[in-house]
Amino acid sequence: MQNKVKLEQLNVHFGANHAVKSVSMEFPENSVTAIIGPSGCGKSTVLRAINRMHDLVPSAQVTGKILLDDTDIYDKGADPVTIRRRVGMVFQKPNPFPAMSIYDNVIAGYKLNGRINRAEADGIVESSLKRVALWDEVKDRLRGNAMELSGGQQQRLCIARTIAVKPEVILMDEPASALDPISTLKIEELIEELKEKYTIIIVTHNMQQAARVSDYTAFFYLGELVEDGETRKIFTTPDKKQTEDYITGRFG
Ligand SMILES: Nc1ncnc2c1ncn2[C@@H]1O[C@H](COP(=O)(O)OP(=O)(O)OP(=O)(O)O)[C@@H](O)[C@H]1O
Questions:
Q1: What are the entry keywords (predicted)?
Q2: Among protein residues, the one whose CA lies closest to atom 5 of ligand 1
């Protein structure tokens, strides 16, 4: 399988704190890769580096390469706005724009590309909401406020907003950890469907979730990549003892 994203000697410092240490790894296209590891091991920091979110943090220093296809997203000529359109992000807590309707939330990011006509916007809203299996639940109240949706519906709305701009990669930072078990299941089913079109990288604390949704798993500890590979192998016969101890619950 083709690699969509490749990290080469990625290092992230926050001031004197060396949070991510010389990480090199690949993320195959149209697959789900889970990033696991104990709290503070650098999972979110790696994820955020993949759409240049650390640009907004003055103390952050990122070195090494992150290739998106063949382009280094940290190259001097690379445009962060274009990168964030190609690499979308879904956060732990659903974060719809509170003053906006369901409809306007879905189309908000897409509108930044320039003016669009009503028919085009309607089409994008409908197809994005259908893709996240939310259309039937909201089609009669598209002009209603997004905050009136349940937490699980809000998270699916945020995923619809992310895919409306037609990204190639979707980063998810514990996307179901604030949700109830049924909403979590829906998000997991959705991830399974979305990988047909997108490359998905998900940070999760939930080991069962990593095992259920991902094709590949990467285990991090103290800012280092300890081991990565096919999820089946990582969860049954990992090469490193640290990985085995973590997935069997002996630490972390
Ligand atoms: N914006 C920031 N400013 C300063 N330090 C940060 C920032 N973000 C992360 N760090 C530091 O980087 C290290 C890794 O944090 P990170 O959030 O990536 O860990 P994590 O594995 O995702 O943890 P958790 O599972 O608890 O979310 C920690 O020492 C953290 O304090």
A1: ATP-binding, Nucleotide-binding, Phosphate transport, Transport
A2: 14
What residues line ligand 1, using a CB cutoff of 6 Å? 14, 17, 19, 37, 39-45, 57, 59
State in Å: Cα 13 to ligand 1 middle. 10
pLDDT digits (tens, 9 = 90+) for 193-234: 999 999 999 999 999 999 999 999 999 999 999 999 999 999
Give me ligand 1 centre to Cα 16, in Å: 13
ipTM, two decimals: 0.97
pLDDT > 90 in the chain, percent: 90
Topology of domain 3-97+167-248 in CATH is: Rossmann fold (3.40.50)
Split at pLDDT 50, 70, 90, the class of 183 is confident
pLDDT at residue number 61: 97
Q: How far is the CA of 142 from the centre of ligand 1 (A)?
A: 37
